[in-house]
Specification:
Elements: H1 2-5, H2 8-21, H3 25-38, H4 43-55, H5 59-72, H6 77-89, H7 93-106, H8 111-123, H9 127-140, H10 145-157, H11 161-172, H12 180-191
Helix pairs in contact: 2-3, 2-4, 3-4, 4-5, 4-6, 5-6, 6-7, 6-8, 7-8, 8-9, 8-10, 9-10, 10-11, 10-12, 11-12
Length: about 190
């Protein structure tokens, strides 16, 4: 549609998304920066630039890009969550929790918000809170293998081996158990005495 109507900015954005999906982050970054040069108020471009940096574990640049996106639309829950995760990865946990609270206040029943809260609390080593949020997220969306892995890790950190095993047995019956990392985690937990 963008190509048909001649919307070059939209074409650049779609092309950047395709590049990112294929793992060509350098090309995606180039296109997004070019788009932002033309349209510095593009919320989508800032979010997607943040996603590229986050995927490449460049959390400082990711936090900055998400911060710009949030300055344009502070109601977007996903950008708030990724901004929070970027800050947490940088060790700025109090700021990370502040942005998570904003996301939670906007959508308290979101499995995504719950998952990010669990992730950030896990990084803060508050495994009790992390497990609570991750369990709520897993209940809302049992197809998220990352949440399942982290929830199992939380239970192990809390010394709740029986709970970790029970969850591992439950997850083993789900289609997500085909994920190699999750399968390894399940086998590790169920193999423990």
């Amino acid at each position: 549609e963008a190509a048909r109507t001649g919307d070059s900015k939209q074409c650049m954005l779609y092309l950047a998304l395709i590049c990112r999906a294929k793992g060509d982050y350098e090309a995606a970054e180039f296109l997004l920066k070019r788009l932002l040069k033309e349209d510095p108020g593009s919320f989508s471009a800032w979010c997607n630039l943040g996603n590229c940096y986050y995927d490449c574990e460049n959390y400082g640049f990711a936090a900055a890009a998400y911060g710009r996106a949030i300055s344009l639309d502070e109601s977007d829950v996903i950008s708030l969550c990724y901004h929070s995760a970027s800050l947490a990865r940088l060790g700025e946990t109090s700021k990370a929790l502040e942005f998570l609270e904003k996301a939670y206040s906007r959508d308290p029943h979101s499995g995504t918000v719950q998952a990010f809260q669990g992730f950030v609390y896990f990084l803060c080593k508050d495994f009790a809170k992390a497990s609570r949020f991750l369990a709520e997220s897993f209940e809302l969306d049992p197809s998220d293998e990352d949440v399942a892995k982290q929830l199992i890790d939380c239970y192990l950190e809390l010394g709740e081996k029986a709970t970790a095993k029970k969850l591992a047995r439950k997850v083993r019956r789900l289609p997500i158990a085909e994920d190699p990392e999750l399968l390894a985690k399940i086998e590790e937990v169920l193999g423990k005495g």
